[in-house]
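Risk register update: the risk of archive-format incompatibility is retired. Evidence:
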Amino acid sequence: MAAEQRIPEEIRQEAARWIAERDAGLLTPGDEKARAAWLAADPLHATAYARLERTWSTMGSVPVKAEIHRRSTVLPFRLPARSRQWLGGAVAACLALAIVGTAQDWPTRLRADAMTATGERREVVLTDGSRVELNTASAIMIDYRSERRIIHLLKGEAAFTVAADRTRPFTVEAGDGATTALGTRFIVRREGADTDVTVTEHRVRVARAAEAATPAWIAIVSEGEASRYGPGGIIAPHAVDIDAAAAWTRGRLVLVDRPLGDVVAELNRYHRGYIRVVGEALAERRFSGVLPVDDPIGSLDAIQRSLGISSTRITDRLIFLHS
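Archived output:
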């Protein structure tokens, strides 16, 4: 089978803009003529448009009016020219994330013994009575042996409540390191090449694998502390708010004086779509609040009311926050 023809990025972004504006009901008769002319101008234009349209439809897009949300008011509107300039690139990024995410998920699915979809949380009870609470978009592989208990965190985040068994250590392997329970309860979260470990009861031993000519890194993390390991080694344990760190196990996000960009990044973990903050200044605005993880759209509405900002929504799948 021949490989798919490569589409230049600028053509992909333009195709994405036309699709987004069409589904949002933003095209005037003049725009429709311009779209037809663009499609006819180059076979690559039509190819890019068809490919992105297929992906967009699999994400559940339906023709709707674009809306501007400010506080509790919802009004139909037409995107200003400056917003239309970044719309195509943002939609293209959203579609690319959907394609790449789906492709990367298959190897994980084949290895995983338990996993969650985006927005889902799940508790798994292991054969020894230990419990694993999987957060959104997370996966584990279970490797229990006669002499030890190993859980591989393949992606995402999980909280572990460990049943005591001194003869069989309980270890969570994630990335290039491992966390061994010396007590009862802890949380492990993978973020790219780094792994965060937070201890909510007793303590754990964190070890990062040794590399050539480099000794292994080891740290003891106690209750109420967190650490991070990755390519740069292990960060020294430091005090954290464990109630806030474990709030997702109770269906909440506790956010204290966080940049809006970080807040939206957290919401994106639970949202089956793409939320973007437009502009660096807005991304640095601070937000504090308690948000439900099971309702990212409702959480977004609360953020908008709190900060007095607006959003452009092309279905609930694609949302842009702006001033």
